[in-house]
Amino acid sequence: MGDEIYFAASQPRQIPGNFAGHFPGPYPRALLAALAVLVLLVLLFAGTADAHRMLLGYKVNELQLKAMYDDGTPAQGVDIEVLKDGKAIQNGTTGDKGEFLFRPQDNYDLGDLTFVGNAAGHRAQLSLNLGSEKADPEMPLAARAAAGIGYLLGICGIAMIYTARKNGRASKSSGK
Fold first, then answer.
1. What is the pLDDT of residues 24-53, one digit of tens each?
2. Domain that holds residue 124
């Protein structure tokens, strides 16, 4: 019987300034609502998470050209000249099936190429752009992070303006 301890219930102690554990006014509710909306927006518009970026590229090892007449028969023995900037970089002849394999060398950029075929009074020309295309321009990570922070600060600023105006109206109506 002597082992029991009793505590006397007392009233909560008031902190000077009448802040008894909470902030005065509707500001926290508006802030929490703005944060909840912000979290929802971030979750709705969030894409997949990336640890690092993967890029795909290509290299043209060979290009097969097919020369044929308008009736669909293969054009055999056609002299093919490959031009870059008006200068011949490779010459060749089509085979029995009218095919010519162009194998670019590694020492030059492909860019705009023109293939000219000549045979028995016939001439055909094909222009191709095989230059390396640049990856889609994307904002650097630091710029994206700064833009995201600016966006979040803008939303918080709008929420603060809204609550300040709401508090201003409430104080004007109570001051009358």
1. 555 577 777 888 888 888 777 776 665 566
2. 63-129
